[in-house]
Sequence to fold (665 residues):
Amino acid sequence: MTINKTISRLAILALAVALTATACSDGAQQPEPFFDPGSGSQRDPDPASGTLPPVEEIDATAPLPEAGELQDLLDELIANSDLPALGVTVFDGDEIIEAAVTGVRRSGDPTPVEPTDLFHIGSNAKAMTATLVATYVDEGVISWETTVGNVYEDVLPALDADLAQVTFRQLLSHTAGFDDERVVLNLEGIDDDLPVMDQRHEAATITLARPGDLPAGEFMYSNVGYTIVGAMLEELTGTPWEELLRTRVFDVLGMDSCGFYAPGTPGEVDQPWGHLDEQGGQAIDPGHPEADYPRVIAPAGLVHCSMSDWALFLQSQLRGFRGSDTEIISPDSFAALQTAPDGSTYALGWDTIQTPNGLVIHHHGSNNRFTAYTLLFPAENWAMLVVTNLGEEMADPTIGAVVDALVMRRVLASGENVDIGGREMFVACHGSGSPTVILEHGLGTTGADFKTVQDTIADTTRVCYTSRAGMGFSDPIQGGVRTAQDAADDLSAVLAAADLPGPYVVVGHSFGGLVVRLFADQHPDDVVGMVLVDSTHEDQLTRMREEMSPQGWAEVSVFFGPDNAENMDLDASVAQVAAAGDLGNMPLVVLGAGQEENEDPPPGIAQAAVDELNAVMGWLGPELQLDLANLSTNGRYLLVEGSGHFIHLDRPDAVIDAINSVLGR
Fold:
């Protein structure tokens, strides 16, 4: 009796995760789809989602496709799936941009699904419960730190001393210490015929009398925790959670269609029926006792809505996350809803991923009869929701395909794929003017790492990034290793195919520094300035081998072998750059990392080896960066305080200032 929540590991369409905590080279996992149903449930969170670079930029101003394309997409997907029905809505903070539905309300019945039909949204209702709590926080009735003991100390016959200290914030962020696998067994004896408030009071009595399963503060996804939240609100107000949510959220936002439990009239096909994936997609009458989970856990996710009314709630959330101060709850409460405890990505009712494009907010929900997913990009002011009347195990692959397609469509609209002789490479340009600034990414990442930099520089001149072969939306090259010279040749071909003539100011991060140096050597009349962002030095691998212990180098050398995300031969690449000429008096700014990275070592690499590498690069890195500045008689080196290797992510202002300096602005 659990509502499983699948969490995407992602960022925007795919993520490149840095392998090394050094200022010398990059490595990354291959890109994975944005929505990854196989990535595990929130019961097994990935706390390492931290700050991760997205593959490509999402541009809120990008043109939308012709009308009917979304409908065609859904029709095609449902024809190749087991889903009875599928619906999608794309929106911004103010309006529905497009929406479409396809399929039938019940398998075996021809009644088509309608745009106004009601779908169960499962655990997506957790954000509604968190918002309901926030309304009381804003009124000063409670705070996020109000404890179980504050509410129940003189009410329950027995109250575990540790659980008495658990707060609303911990309950809503799944850090209260409950293990649903154990607790739910104790709740199965609650009489479902009792008034729902009595059921939740009994659930609180049973659950809070014995010790928690985990220390408070440790993450474990828990529907029981949200059930206790509902019971606490009922204890404080004397009103059922359902009525509180309706009067304080649904009615305020005009969500007239929203209600509770399975939608529809028993025996009628007047709304979509749920379909149990545990039974091969069998339809289940909304009046059947198994049409939904027991009402006692409704605060954890037993809500249904039309797509448009769920979108009303999500639009309010989107505006609030963007800083609006005229929403259902205060800006301070919206800040709380999107702030996860240390070591977790789950905030209050929402899961979050920090990216250079800003915070991505999302949630998945299923009662194993319906499945729903929503994805919000507050910084870009757009979002989507996807619904179906089939349980998650069978539905998630198709939902994932919808999400990937919509995000990819948005991404591709922000740039273009150009043909460079039988394969395509992605390039995105913003702004106008000359010279054109070219942004070249590090190994295993993409040019969208530079989004913040690009957005600012575009105010004064044209600025473009590409993604190298096999990264982002650029076609891969099958077989064989590549070198920095291959990447420089591809860059030349992309700029020619996209009709982007010089002059250029080139910016290279890490391995990208090798690429732009070779490009400048090939195009001395076109490149008029350069910024190197904690760039790889041609002597770097040799010096690291010399300075580290044999054992330490043997451990970390895997970072620098050919088995990396781009199949780059780093030894050959640094040799190519070593053979290139200097930069004469070209304007050059070299930025160096001002602090060590503090990430855990990759699996199989001893912490001691990474510590040794960091120690060596602590003094060798600045020495090599300073030497790079001597490539030009007009070069200078700047140590960027408060930044690790990804300076353009940690301190984009430093990269922007460096580019403007080279531009003479």
Observations:
- Residues 17 and 28 are 5 Å apart (CA to CA).
- Residues 1-67 have pLDDT under 50 and may be disordered.
- The chain is about 35% helix and 15% strand.
- Residues 607-629 form the longest helix (23 residues).
